[in-house]
Design brief:
Number of helices: 0
Order of helices and strands: EEEEEEEEEE
Distance between the termini: 40 Å
Oligomer: single chain
Strand order of the largest sheet: 2-10-9-4-5-6
Structural class: mainly beta
Largest sheet: 6 strands, mixed
Helix content: under 10%
Length: 115
């Protein structure tokens, strides 16, 4: 059974930084693409960034140049470094495989950016 546990969220002022972590278990982590997703209040969940097993990355246009996804296969962990945060980045952030599987969603981690 795959389990994904996110951490690292919090309250930060606009312009600040946070680093999110997601530890995966129950899967051969190094062979799968991983993604970070977010859901803001009243909005649909959206893809923020993803990283392939080979390390190629994609970032949504709304976060390009500010957020960086990375992975450490020795730790079964994927990271999201978020810089220059904006109030519109406020959301619950989730990790999942990419493409996402409905049965893999975890609790997420709340990121709140104050203006």
């Amino acid at each position: 059974q795959v389990q994904l546990v996110e951490s690292g969220g919090g309250l930060v002022q606009a312009g600040g930084s946070l680093r999110l972590s997601c530890v995966a278990s129950g899967t051969v982590f190094r062979f799968v693409s991983m993604g970070w997703y977010r859901q803001a209040p009243g909005k649909q969940r959206e893809l923020v960034a993803h990283i392939t097993s080979g390390g190629s990355t994609y970032s949504a246009s709304s976060v390009k140049g500010r957020f960086t996804i990375s992975r450490d296969n020795t730790k079964n962990t994927v990271y999201l470094q978020m810089n220059s945060l904006k109030p519109e980045d406020t959301a619950v952030y989730y990790c999942n495989v990419h493409p996402a599987r409905a049965d893999y969603w975890g609790q997420g981690t709340q990121v709140t950016v104050s203006s």
